Amino acid sequence: MADGELTTQNDGEILLKINKGQITGSGELYVYLNDFELKNGEVADIVVGDNKYINVTSPKWQNFWGVNDYLVNVSSDNDIVSIKFNEAVFSLDKIELFWCGNENTQEQINKLKSNALQNLKFSSDRIEGDIDAEDEGWMFFSIPYNTGWKVYDNGKREELVKANVGFMAVKLTEGRHNIVLKYDAPWNKLGLCSTVLGMILLLGMNYRGKQVHTVV
Question: Which helix (H) or strand (E) holds 112?
């Protein structure tokens, strides 16, 4: 890797060593790929951990969804986390491992419950709600990522990030937010409301107070 460019061969592999000394108690391990895009071709598959498949795309691809940051939940049972590649050229800023400890779990659960979207409103192509964020963090939507979705925070368009391989999240600052999710794919609006309602499992905040730290 040189000057932010990563060239890989078929069956290429990057191994990330887990610093077990920084893993305490129970929790979850995440791989963060920052500013990660395909430089040649249109779409390339990589495998993170045991079986998390990611489609990395190029801005040249007609269906490029504009996402180049990936946060992937992986197992912490082993000493190594692997990232497997086929032959391709990527641009990449950095790769990091993060451990999110579950200390004070009940307190965190109560925080999530108290900081979920309130005053929810649904229509065939729109979800709206309000939230008071006690701290800067990420709001996670357990809705499969799709380029048709757009998010607005207090009326301003914000970037939807691909989270945990195939879902969506948006960065929020501390304070009051009116969140609007709009689905903008006219050919697929019919019947969307029932589908969306079936997919929404959780709308809540993921706070820095969950003790996230690098374990590389």
Answer: helix 105-114
The DSSP result for 39-83, as a single string, is SSSSEEEEEETTTEEEEEE-TTSTT--S---EEEEE--SSSEEEE
Please state, rounded to an integer, the average pLDDT across all residues of the chain: 77
**113-124, pLDDT tens digit by residue?**
666 778 888 887
Q: Which helix (H) or strand (E) holds 193?
A: helix 192-199
Question: Which residue from 129, 118, 123 is spatially nearest to 180, judged by alpha carbons?
Answer: 129
Q: Is the pLDDT of residue 200 over 60?
A: no
Indicate the SS3 state at residue 139: strand
The answer to whether 69 and 33 have CB atoms below 8 angstroms apart is yes
pLDDT reported for residue 103? 65
Going along the chain from its start, the domains and CATH numbers come out as 5-101 (2.60.120), 105-208 (2.60.40)
pTM listed for this prediction: 0.51
Q: Is 172 left (phi over 0), alpha (psi -120 to 50) or beta?
A: beta
The CA R_g of the chain, rounded to the nearest whole Å, is 18
